[in-house]
Design brief:
nine-stranded mixed β-sheet; 37% strand; alpha+beta
Amino acid sequence: MTHYKTNDNAFTGLEAAIVLIAFVVVAAVFSYVVLGAGFFTTQKAQEAVYTGVAQATSNIQVVGQVYGIGSGTSASPAVINEIRFSIGLAPGAPTLDISKLNIVFSTPNSDLKILSYGPSATTTTFLAQVDGAGAATPSLMGQQQVQIDFKVVGVPKNTAINMEIRPAVGAALPFAKMTPPELTHSNVLY
């Protein structure tokens, strides 16, 4: 009887090589998935930062004086019935959609009013005109100036006025003014 001896040393090396290749392939696929997820997360974080900066900065600025248009006669005390001021964009700011803008108005003696864009100046809507003349405009771009007009309910002399311009995107622009001690037809609020 002849016995043949089997030598399987080569098969053990081949099996080890196959297992090693399998580990390398699995590691490569895993690293590809991890890198892809990392790039995706970085991109989303970058978008969040840019959106946050855009919303945190105010692109609106008040240009010139804020005026209170008064009414009344010598027989009755004068009050301010209309507020008028101009706004513009900060240098390099994108176009502003005025139709989505809100203006918040309040005095110590009146309720808070939120005014929206409208075709005329009322106590609930404001009118926006390019350079104070012409038809209402729904947007503000470049170096344009838009005159804002809205009606208020009788603001007397020596009264604090709080206003805030709230765009749809970006930071609000709050500012406070005071009516003068003597009211005339056209008053600069300080």
